[in-house]
Design a protein that fits this description.
The structure is a homodimer. In chain A, 45% of the residues lie in helices and 14% in strands. Chain A is an alpha/beta fold. At the A-B interface, helix 1, helix 3, helix 5, helix 6 and helix 8 of A face helix 1, helix 3, helix 5, helix 6 and helix 8 of B.
Chain lengths: 417, 417
């Protein structure tokens, strides 16, 4: 027997990898992964990550909230909780959503481990292999990865500087339907979209809701950045207009802090039970400790003022980025002008491959995310996402200047300019 | 268009439920769910739940740890972290596992949102619909639910008072192989098993490892209770003997507190990358805040002494339960005698249906979990799980006395005694 054990351990045909389920083949590292390891080195100006800037977060206040929580309510905060999430926090989440015009009942809110988990669970509940999911072009890399793992056929729909183009949505639906495939839902980020930075205006929201209702396609509205408008409030959430046909995802990662991993889904009643069961199977219950920390912060601290401080901080960085893009990027490059959120989307001449350009940018001590990461179909090779959320304005200028130089040299080498 | 929208909202055939993926049919509420709502009423002695008893947790110390964490390292603790988990905590986890004979490298540890998430991700990576998963009879309800959602064919293997029976494992493997089905892995809880409370002795561990190695079946060793032995330390973990063929799951839920939702998987190298990708797709990253809270507690507090305090607290309750079972349960009932952990498994005469008995127990102000919850195949109708972890010894005696009365009456009515 012991010989058998030894043979087992060394035999190449006995690897765990040979036991993987079919779906494991779809679990591939994104191209951003390796990049982040490099981009996090201190000498590099990272315009790559989407990490919120916590320098404005009042840590003393936060420590007080958590200290009080443990001392006064520790046996609840550190215990297992409800699979749906803590009732008190679900009430407070309804107050937060009211700022974007949503009237909701706490019973319809499910607290998740960041809104990424909501994406995962919704995919699990709805996507059969081969089902079509419509997404913006480009779209959030984390959503694309999850849809892919559930073997969805991701179809991109054109955007412009005002977000998803309704006419393109109609055309995409028609084209997909002609192939006989089933469209499961439309996933979109209407506010300060990741990665494009654009905002979907109110009239387009209405038009898209009407198209989807008529075509019997439901909408997954992902809204982590809605309260981070710099100059004016965002239009009402799409969920505010339609409570039946929209699954709404929210998060405290960008308005408070991501380290708590607290997001939520607001869902039509018919979906709630399945979503809770899927959540319980996935993690039993979200952390009472992080939920009640957020809850205490919302109850005791001036969180609206704090969001205003974040907006001020990000606005200065957005301005630094747009000004330095204007100053340092060569003619032939264009970019979006975000009114909020974290991201600028840059489009270069089609001859420039932003993935191939990355090593040169790293040498010049600046990092970004190549555009293809935000497409399921290999498109986007001449675009890139720049984030301004984390570095100081000075570092942003330094990074954009360095990157502008790299791009200019590349364009000169290719005789584009 | 607006007519269409109205019709969409009221048309019964337009429900989201009709868009569910096939796998959503398998997401069904467990029978424990409705029960817990009733069992949590204060007048009921709940012997149903598996909630750790946090009365022994030093809340002042815990508050100090977290206060210090936020004040000194808040921008890291409240930020996004690594998908694999925080490097410092992964080192400390290796120290914890060393107590059960495991030598491991932090690179092979993946931090999860409770070990339930590890079960979910492992299922996702390995289980194709129809694959067989071998489990103890009975087994953990949360694992059964997850395996079912991934469309596994769960096959139970006989246990006795010393845990899984090696001969029964051989027979089960042979029987399954004859049907042509693929066995993906053996899932087991060697220490103070949930729900049976039994311990797998060292010699059986070795024998089961050898059987599985010879049969090329890997093992998922779930070990939340290993450090909660009351009278003597548990035998070394199975992973201590075999680093290639065992996926080990650990958790701080029972040794510190479940509200942090921090568990982990220790996996063979060939599995790590896929598991991290699956974890990122599921939740991006585990909470830095809860991980670093645990890390600070492990670094600064006498956590081994604290586990000893937990053991003392649970031992008193175990004794109260075993004594009162002896005193109040009628002849014809038998039960396991756990040396640690949270649970006693009671077997009644086969005429007694413990699910049907529940309403009578509730009237008598006591709750338990009916045995069928711990089987994938409807077996277990004359058994029940009693947990002694949470109530006071007095309440345990009160509950067991009431339950003994209910069972005695039922047996008299059925002329069993």
């Amino acid at each position: 027997m012991s010989n058998e054990v030894t043979r087992f351990r060394t035999g190449e045909d006995q690897q765990l990898t040979q036991r993987f389920a079919h779906r494991a083949e779809l679990m591939q590292a994104s191209e951003i992964r390796a990049l982040f390891a490099v981009a996090s080195r201190p000498e590099i100006v990272s315009l790559a990550g989407g990490m919120p800037n916590l320098s404005a977060l009042p840590m003393e206040m936060m420590a007080d909230v958590v200290d009080k929580l443990i001392k006064e309510n520790g046996t609840e905060a550190l215990q297992y909780g409800s699979g749906q999430g803590h009732p008190k926090l679900r009430e407070q989440i309804c107050d937060v959503m009211a700022l974007e015009g949503i009237r909701a009942h706490p019973d319809d809110v499910i607290v998740t481990t960041g809104s990424q988990q909501a994406l995962d669970l919704i995919s699990r509940i709805f996507i059969n292999p081969g089902d079509v999911v419509l997404v913006e072009a480009p779209s959030y890399v984390g959503a694309l990865g999850t849809f892919k793992q559930y073997e969805a056929n991701v179809v991109h729909v054109e955007m412009d500087e005002n977000g998803l183009v309704p006419e393109a949505l109609r055309a995409a639906i028609e084209a997909v339907r002609k192939t006989g495939q089933e469209i499961k839902f439309l996933y979109l980020i209407p506010n300060y979209q990741n990665p494009a930075g654009v905002l979907l205006p109110a009239d387009r929201r209405t038009e898209i809701l009407e198209i989807c209702a008529a075509e019997k396609i439901f909408i997954v509205e992902d809204n982590p950045y809605g309260l981070l408008g710099f100059d004016r409030p965002s239009p009402n959430a799409m969920r505010a207009q339609d409570s039946e046909n929209v699954i709404y995802l929210g998060s405290f990662s960008k308005t408070i802090a991501p380290g708590f991993r607290v997001g939520w889904a607001l869902v039509p009643q018919s979906l709630k039970e399945k979503l809770v069961i899927a959540a319980e199977s996935s993690i039993l219950c979200p952390s009472n400790f992080t939920q009640l920390s957020i809850s205490g912060y919302l109850a005791d601290q001036p969180w609206r003022d704090q969001i205003a401080s974040f907006c001020k901080l990000y606005k200065v960085r957005r301005d630094a980025m747009l000004e330095s893009l204007e100053q340092y990027f060569p003619e032939g490059a264009s970019w979006t002008k975000p009114g909020g959120g974290f991201y600028v989307w840059v489009t270069l001449p089609p001859e420039i491959d932003t993935t191939a350009l990355m090593p040169k940018a790293i040498v010049a001590k600046v990092a970004y995310v190549p555009g293809t990461a935000f497409y399921a179909d290999g498109f986007g090779s001449w675009s890139m996402r720049l984030s301004y959320c984390h570095p100081t304005p000075e570092r942003i200028r330094e990074g954009v200047r360095a990157l502008g130089g790299v791009i200019r040299t590349e364009m000169e080498n290719r005789a584009i300019i």
